[in-house]
């Protein structure tokens, strides 16, 4: 099957002050792929996702999403981004939050209503739609943030630890949805610490100390390192912290 690059990073680096957080990242993510970023805490996963989302700008190299050099404001409508810390309005209800973001993404009328209903259902919050977000638990806020990232059916989904604080049953249904979205053409980049989630990704990028130390399918990574699990493969590639 011929597939095109959806996200392309060329020699990307990011420094904060004198500190190098990402260095020499070259990577292509295909259309319709679920690509997982795996790495220890502080290895640079969030920074990389923010560069792809166009929320932050690379200090070196180039980032392209759907052929456009990032950052680019007009890409907002083509990207669904779920940050690690929830960007929600606590005093507004879930519905009001969703209405706000739907308007920002240019969703109107019947489509807006339909998408709010569909995405809130997916994350299991339909019964809580009219409650103010300040009364939500941490896991409920994560779920609402995920629903918002999915609202406008973006061709590119960037999810930073989307299932933290979400129970295993709901986590399964969210993964099934991500797989179904990918089958219908959505490109998904997801950061995770959860090894069984890593196994569900089509390909993985292992990050350590701001560098991409390996890229491949979960199976090829296990085979190449003679490992039974992704965790073991990661350690054999040199992913151990410290
Ligand atoms: N705005 C910033 N200014 C200075 N340093 C930063 C900034 N943002 C990130 N960093 C540093 O960059 C490094 C990578 O952080 P990042 O959040 O990308 O890691 P991560 O792999 O996503 O970690 P975690 O899994 O804990 O979320 C860390 O050392 C962090 O302190």
UniProtKB/TrEMBL annotation:
<keyword id="KW-0547">Nucleotide-binding</keyword>
<dbReference type="InterPro" id="IPR017871">
    <property type="entry name" value="ABC_transporter-like_CS"/>
</dbReference>
<dbReference type="InterPro" id="IPR003439">
    <property type="entry name" value="ABC_transporter-like_ATP-bd"/>
</dbReference>
<dbReference type="InterPro" id="IPR027417">
    <property type="entry name" value="P-loop_NTPase"/>
</dbReference>
<dbReference type="GO" id="GO:0005524">
    <property type="term" value="F:ATP binding"/>
</dbReference>
<feature type="domain" description="ABC transporter">
    <location>
        <begin position="7"/>
        <end position="234"/>
    </location>
</feature>
<protein>
    <submittedName>
        <fullName>ABC transporter ATP-binding protein</fullName>
    </submittedName>
</protein>
<keyword id="KW-0067">ATP-binding</keyword>
<dbReference type="InterPro" id="IPR003593">
    <property type="entry name" value="AAA+_ATPase"/>
</dbReference>
<dbReference type="GO" id="GO:0016887">
    <property type="term" value="F:ATP hydrolysis activity"/>
</dbReference>
<dbReference type="Pfam" id="PF00005">
    <property type="entry name" value="ABC_tran"/>
</dbReference>
